[in-house]
Each structure stands twice: as C-alpha cells, then as structure tokens.
Amino acid sequence: MSNITIKTPREIEALRKAGEVTVATLMGVDAMIRPGISTEDINHFVHEDTLRRGARPAPLNYHGFPKSVCTSVNEVVCHGIPNDKEILEPGDIINVDVTSILDGYYGDTSVTFYVGDPSPEAKHVTEVARRSLELGIAEVREGARLGDIGAAIQAFAEREGCSVVRAFVGHGIGRVFHEAPQVSHVGQRGSGMRLKAGMVFTIEPMVNLGTYEVDILDDQWTAVTRDGRLSAQFEHTLVVTKHGCEILTPRPGPLANSDRFSTYWSR
Ligand code: MF3
Ligand code: CO
Ligand code: CO
User: Fold this and answer.
1) Which of 56, 105, 126, 207 has the most neighbouring CB atoms within 10 Å?
2) What digits encode the pLDDT tens for the residues 199-215?
3) Domains (ranges, CATH) in the chain?
4) Predicted confidence band at 267 (pLDDT cuts at 50, 70, 90)?
C-alpha cells in the first residue's frame, strides 16, 4: 500500500508544465461561462483548447468516459457528462474538472463556477468548498499525516452545516491519472501515513448542503447527491515540500465567474 512514488525534480518540472496547460484551459472555460451555453459547448472548448496546447484531454475514453471534461451542475457531485441538451441557467453552479496530459504527465484541477447570480445556498456550499480545499492544502508539509488533510476539511465543512462526500477521494498523480495514495477529505488528525517531500497528489473535496451520500445514475458515471441538494468542489494538484507544498495548478489571476463572490482572492 505504501507504493507512493517520490517525484524527481525533473518530473516535478514536467508536472508543473502539465498543470500550467490544464489551468490555462480552465481559465478559458471561465471566460465562456454564461447562461445559455450547453455543457457540450464547454466540452468542445476543453477538447480543442487542450489539443491546441499540445496536450491530450485525460477524461476522454478513461475507463469508458465518453467526453473530454467533467461538467457537474447543481446536485451533480462529480463526473457529470457534457451534453448538448444541458443548458446553463442563471443561478446554476457548475464544477468543471479539467485533466490534461502533457508529455506523459497529468495536471488535474477543477473549480465551481457561478452562472449569473447565485442563491444564498449556492453561494454557501460553493464558498465552503473553496475554503475546504484551502484548509486541506494548509495542512500539507513533510512530516504531516495524510489524515490531517481530511480532518481539517471535515471539521470546517461540518461546522458550516455542510457534509463532505466519502465516496470519492483525492489521489496521487504523475504519469498515471489515479495512483496511490488515496486522499480522503474526512478523517482524524494524526492518522494515516506521513507525507514526504516529492509526493504529488490532488486534494478535491466535494461538499454538499445536505447528506454526503451519493447515487450513481444509469449512465454509470454521473454522481448525484442522494437528497438532490447542491454540491460543490474545487481541486488542485500539489507537490509536498519540506515546509509546505507547491500548488502545481496555480491560477494566474482571479476567475471572473467563481472568485467574484469569494471574500478575498486566493488561488
Ligand atoms: N478529474 C477527476 C478527478 O479529479 C476524474 C475524472 S475521471 C473521468 O480525479 F473519467 F470521469 F474523467
Ligand atoms: Co483528481
Ligand atoms: Co479532477
């Protein structure tokens, strides 16, 4: 179970470049978010933009996933499949999860966007998810425990009246999309393995307004909240360092359609 690879400085540089193209595509998605577009419009953009940048969209054909990006609207927790019949409406929230492969290395990052002005509930779950990722990231440094990440996220999200999804976890990443370790977004401080500099993984908490339980739709991919209430998610890829971590998917500036309603800008 401890087959967690330590990435070399060369590999980390390759992951930085992969992260950079992934973020660039996500910034392009931000610029197109508005009522009236379809989730297939987002898929088309992500696919073309990824190729334009010399990379490949990792989701396409991944265990049979049919599209180049995951688009998860409102009660969809993750793995939403883009569809030209699914039109964004004012008040919707949508997570767009971009994963690109550049020169064999993966970058994986997602944000939840606001379509028009959010309801108080939509804003709450989205801002709790945003902060949950930040608090998880703040736990990461050499010598910390894997469980410290989930503990910090769970304590905060539950204090805010939300729940944290158990069914999906963050993951190691490198030349493989999903590798060890699994990064739970709930847990106990002081539990789990010790982090070492050079480990690369994602943190990607899914935060729900109601129950943390999910159902998978008949398409075998789309995960929805069991109670139909809203869900939001943010994701970064990062590398553990001696005294903290380096985010490998940093954004160059604020997102017009997400950071707009955050209290302060944070990447
Ligand atoms: N990007 C997702 C993650 O964060 C995985 C999507 S798998 C897919 O791990 F097949 F649905 F694309
Ligand atoms: Co991921
Ligand atoms: Co992802």
Assistant:
1) 207
2) 999 999 999 999 999 99
3) 9-266 (3.90.230.10)
4) very low
b/e map 33-66, b = 16+ CB within 10 Å: beeebbbbbbbbbbbebbeebebbbbbbeeeebe
Say yes or no: CB of residue 46 within 6 Å of ligand 1: no
Q: How far apart are CA 128 and CA 156, in angstroms?
A: 8
Contact between 116 and 107 under an 8 Å Cβ cutoff? The reply is no
Q: What is the pLDDT of residues 39-98, one digit of tens each?
A: 999 999 999 999 999 999 999 999 999 999 999 999 999 999 999 999 999 999 999 999
Give the model's confidence band at 223: pLDDT under 50 very low, under 70 low, under 90 confident, else very high. very high
- CB of 60 shorter than 6 A to ligand 1: no
CA distances from 81 to 49, 51, 77, 172 (A): 18, 20, 12, 23
Closest atom of ligand 1 to CA, residue 62: 10
Asked if residue 39 has its Cβ within 6 Å of ligand 1, the reply is: no
Looking at ligand 1, which residue's alpha carbon is closest to its atom 2?
A: 97
Question: How big is the CA angle at 241 (ends 240 and 245), to the nearest 5 degrees?
Answer: 60
Q: Give the integer Cα–Cα distance in Å for 213 and 49.
A: 34
Beta bridge partners of 110: 97, 235
What number does the ligand 1 atom closest to the CA of 98 have? 1
Residue 2 has pLDDT above 80, yes or no: no
